[in-house]
Structures are given as structure tokens and as C-alpha cells.
Amino acid sequence: MKIKVLLLLSVFFISVSSIANNNDVWGPTGHRATGKIAEKHLTKSAKKKIEKLLQGESLAFVSTYADEIKSDRKTYGKFYTWHYVNMPLDTKYEDSKKNPKGDLITGINECVKILKDKNSSTADKRFYLKMLVHLVGDMHQPMHIGQSEDKGGNTIQVQWHGKGSNLHRVWDENLIEKWGMSYVELADNAKHLSKEQIKAIQKGSVIDWMYDTHKLTKQVYGSVKSGDKLRYRYSYDYFPIVREQLQKGGLRLAKLLNEIFC
């Protein structure tokens, strides 16, 4: 009997841990797709310098690093709030209440600052490059710029094809996983864009890009209500938007990296 109880408790705690660690991320597939797309738009100089700094690892490979270190809260806890921005739907970032521990915008800016600093150590540059790749991806997941009261959609419970989920997880992983494409397939099948279209996407600052995603955040919040049963119709309506966001993230990441490693 004791063994049976211990087994049940183990399953319970593993399940809770899985849910707790699945709150604040594009899924691995989404992040890797963004990294892969970015690599296709790097200049030769930037690509060479990045390959050297990452010791041969690809942007796709390091794109999940910032999530992998989350479990070590003692060492990396100060970076936890860098993965998101909480702000009301009708408020500008500049006027919103800021997290004293930092947020997605301050995190990206800090990464860029350290990478541009000639006095930064190689180890620091490698670490903050990995962080930057991930954070730019996060910025293009609309629920990473969500409301604090529902934890970016995490408390909005829905059903996804008959199974329990929440609005944040639907956009992090469910939409991508249901389509069954690898990160390479997602990257290779990104929409063909003209040079002018690419420049238009890359135009502006990090704040401008955040606002671009925040427009979508408002749309996503209006797309469901707690308890909704989401199935194929939701996938058909919103998976194309997910693909577009992955591509925007990759193109904008490439722009930042080309400027840093010029």
C-alpha cells in the first residue's frame, strides 16, 4: 500500500512540476524555428562571429537555453521576469507599472548592451547571446505581453481538443504541436517575402516590435473565454498567425545580430 501511495504521489508531483514549468515559453519547436529563420538572414560577417562565439552551436540549438536554466532559480532567478511584459491592454508600455526585477524589454536591451560592449568577457557574450535569441522569440508570442491578473493567459482555462489547457499554453505549444511540423519544416516553409517586405518587418525599435505583438495580444484575448472548447477551427484561424510571428521573430533577431556583429 505504501509503495502504491508513493507512486501516486510521484505522478502527482511530476504532473504539477510539468505544469509549473510550462508557463512562460514559446515551446522548443517555436523557439528553434525562430532561430533557424534568423540564421538564414545573417550577414556573412555576423554568421562567422556568432559561430565562433557559440563554438559551432546553432541559433536554433541555443534558443531554448533561457528556459533550460529556469529550474536553477538560485543561480538564474534574476532572469525569470525577463521572459514577459505584463501590461493592461489599453495602456502604453511607457505608462505601465514596471516590474522592479526587469521585464522582456529591459532584458533584451541588457543583452544587446553587453554584446556590444568590447569589455565584456567571451563567457558573458556567449551567455547573453543565448538569452537574446530566446527573448526575441518570446517577444513574438502574444501572451508574453499579457495581463498580470491572469498571468499572461495562464489562468484562462480552456479545452484543447478535449484536453485541459490554458490560453497561454495554447499559444506556446498546442497550436504548433497540433500541426505536427518540426522546427526545420516551419523555418523552411516560412512565407516568401520580398526585400521590401523584410525591411518593413525589421523596421523600428524593440519597443515598436513589442507594440506590434501587443496588437495581436488584444486579438487573442478576445478570441476565447474561460471554459471554451477549442478544436480545429481555432487551429485553422490562428496557426497562420503563429507562423507569421515565428518569421517576424527570426527576421528581427537577425537584424539585431547583424547590427551587433557587424
TrEMBL record:
UniProt xrefs under InterPro entries: PLipase_C/P1_nuclease_dom_sf, S1/P1nuclease
SUPFAM superfamilies associated with the record: Phospholipase C/P1 nuclease
Metal-binding listed as a keyword: yes
GO MF term list: endonuclease activity; hydrolase activity, acting on ester bonds; metal ion binding; nucleic acid binding
Domain of life, per lineage: Bacteria
Protein known as: S1/P1 nuclease
Source organism per UniProt: Tenacibaculum pelagium
Source lineage: Bacteria, Pseudomonadati, Bacteroidota, Flavobacteriia, Flavobacteriales
Keywords from the UniProt entry: Disulfide bond, Endonuclease, Glycoprotein, Hydrolase, Metal-binding, Nuclease, Signal
BP terms from Gene Ontology: DNA catabolic process
The keyword Signal is assigned to this record: yes
Signal sequence annotation: 1-20
PANTHER family the record matches: ENDONUCLEASE 4
